[in-house]
Amino acid sequence: MPSKNITREPITPSIELFNAISDEMRLKILMLLDQAEFTVNEIKDILDIHQSNASRHLSKLSACKLLKDRRDGIKAYYGLSEELLLSSRVLSVIREAYEDLQDKDIIQCRAEQVLQDRTDKTKGQIHKLDQAGGSLKAQISLFSKLMTPFEKAVDIGCGEGGDLSLMLANRCQNVFSLDYDPKVISGLQRILKKKGIANVTPKVADMLSTGLPDNFADLVLMSQVLHHAQDPRLALKEAIRLKEAIRILKPGGTLALLDLAQHKEESFRETHGHIWLGFDRAQLEFFVKEFNCKIVESEIIPSENLVDKKLPVICMILSKE
């Protein structure tokens, strides 16, 4: 009898697993962490439970390899584990169970408010091109890969000054510059008016909700924005969404990612409003593994200036299949 090829997933069903996810409160925690990372204090406030109960439930879920945690100083942020995200059968069962939670909408609203409060604290700390990962060497390397003209380009998280948007304006018919901070967009509008640039359209928008239609752009650029995201995986999904293939990009479109390589400069959390201390290449490649696209190029670009804390960056070019 011919053998069947069975794809083994990191997490397999077991009595311990079903015991862990059958508890309603633990299911609510999984639903929360499916949206973004949260601390124990945030979880207990959103779910209105005692901190000791929240810790107990988190421990139970972690024991089944459903969660991972990330240290940020004295805080620990919890999120869904990579093992769970790669276990499509188990993850599907868990997500379907969310629909049976009667107060799921209330919980999600509370979670969104917590995330909004975090965003408010870091407004005004948006990076400039000359900050942590803004080395000239990195920018030149990125644009050497983008030397073909594009009809429509989207610069997600254009930042103060809109440097990259202004560069793209010379190569693209139309550029759409997005940033969640209205002050940044107002500043860019003044620069465009002063320079007489008419093919750049500034827009206030969050990286998780651009408001742009499907199959809109030839190029989507995300330069040094993922380390500001509460959940980089969700931020990427707005540019390339599961089951809908690539949402913003046209067929054959290009997604250009430029972000900090993994580092230990904890001070950047306060001085630059960073949430993630960079990424390693394997981590970013894991984020994009589930998307219907291929990695055209991926490299780590070393810094040429360590004195001013210029950090190595990751340059990744993706293309729609």
Structure description:
The chain has 321 residues and is an alpha/beta fold. The chain has two domains: 15-121, Arc Repressor Mutant, subunit A (Orthogonal Bundle), CATH 1.10.10.10; 136-320, Rossmann fold. 38% of the residues lie in helices and 21% in strands. The protein has 13 helices and nine strands. It has helices at residues 15-21, 24-33, 40-47, 51-63, 82-86, 88-98, 104-122, 136-144, 163-168, 182-195, 232-239, 268-271, 281-289; strands at 67-72, 75-80, 150-156, 172-179, 200-204, 217-223, 249-260, 293-301, 313-320. A seven-stranded mixed beta sheet has the order 5-4-3-6-7-9-8, with helices on both faces. A two-stranded antiparallel ribbon has the order 1-2. Strand 4, helix 10 (182-195) and strand 5 form a beta-alpha-beta unit. Helix 2 packs across helix 6 (88-98) and helix 3 crosses helix 4. The longest helix has 19 residues, at 104-122. The chain is globular, with a radius of gyration of 21 Å. It starts with 14 loop residues before the first helix and ends with a strand. The model is unreliable at 1-5, 126-130 and 238-245 (pLDDT under 50).
